[in-house]
Design a protein that fits this description.
281 residues; binds S-adenosylmethionine; 11-stranded mixed beta sheet; alpha/beta; 3 domains; 23% strand
Length: 281
């Protein structure tokens, strides 16, 4: 009898541990274990990510590229920053839009997701990918016409700071598109209610914030940075990429690398074309 109870207890313990592991690593994608675990998991799943997500070209066009292009019309050549770009969903949707003449910079901390993004974007040349954290974007204030960040804020350690950082690099009057996770069951404390989200956006300096039905797990959230300014338009990276190490000078391209003349910091470019600003040493 006591052997049976012991077996039952051991079985229950093992099941509980398995469930906890499933919740921590799979269901909540590592968010309770810190940034490094989140990124490690994305690195592991990068090759399978698109297969799991099943993005449909027509839906991406209809629900992402088209509304962005309509919101910024008549501008066709926006300079876009896609934060936590993953496998390049947003850059690809824009590249495929018939009127898009702009350029998208996609940043992410998972090098393997970026490698996949570089593959996905081929043969379009309207995107550049950079290995860099969302928390410290290497661009001056007011650099971009559009900043996007989809299905990613809930994975950040301090999402409100990331929103502020995105708004910082957005030009006055520029467009922000992000997402609100609405399937919150498995991520308690990591998602925002609509009220909390409105507060965060207002605090960051956004106006006209509105949420829109989109996918089962997410709403799209739109906003504009307060103020007005002329469109920036697509421009070469050489004029906008700041040194992430000294933060005092623009980086310049030399051969296959990016150099800072001030602190002599150097960023390498991978064989896939991804600019490696991370690790920041
Ligand atoms: C669910 S995926 C979304 C990818 C893409 N935006 C999409 O909609 O398909 C979340 C992405 O956020 C990235 N990520 C998480 N934390 C990050 C951080 N602190 N800085 C940059 N990227 C981050 C992950 O590497 C991953 O690629």
């Amino acid at each position: 009898m006591s052997d049976l109870i012991s077996l039952l207890l051991i079985g229950t313990g093992i099941t509980a541990l398995l469930l906890l592991g499933w919740w921590l690593f799979i269901a909540s994608e590592g968010v309770y274990l810190g940034r490094w675990v989140v990124i490690l998991l994305y690195d592991w799943f990068a090759a399978r990510y698109d297969g799991i997500k099943h993005y449909h070209r027509e839906y991406e066009e209809m629900y992402l590229a088209k509304p962005v292009m309509e919101a910024i019309a008549p501008q066709c050549d926006p300079l876009v920053l896609d934060v936590a770009t993953g496998t390049g969903r947003m850059p690809l949707a824009l590249a495929r839009h018939e009127n898009f003449k702009g350029h998208t910079i996609g940043v992410d901390l998972s090098r393997k997701m970026l490698a996949q993004a570089a593959k996905n974007i081929y043969p379009y040349e309207s995107a550049t990918f950079m290995w860099c954290p969302a928390e410290t974007l290497p661009f001056a204030d007011n650099t971009f016409d559009v900043v996007t960040c989809l299905e990613a804020l809930e994975f950040m350690t301090n999402p409100a700071e990331v929103v502020k950082e995105m708004v910082r690099v957005l030009r006055p009057g520029g467009l922000l598109l992000t997402s609100q996770r609405i399937n919150t069951k498995l991520m308690p404390g990591k998602t925002w209610t609509s009220g909390q989200l409105q507060e965060v956006l207002k605090e960051a300096g956004l106006v006209e914030a509105k949420a829109q039905i989109w996918q089962v797990d997410y709403r799209k959230v739109w906003g504009r940075k307060t103020g007005m300014s002329e469109p920036v338009g697509a421009k070469p990276l050489e004029g906008i990429l700041e040194c992430p190490w000294c933060e005092k000078s623009l980086m310049r391209r030399e051969g296959n690398d990016w150099l800072c003349d001030n602190c002599k910091g150097k960023a390498f470019v991978g064989k896939d074309g991804v600019i490696e600003l991370y690790p920041l040493y």
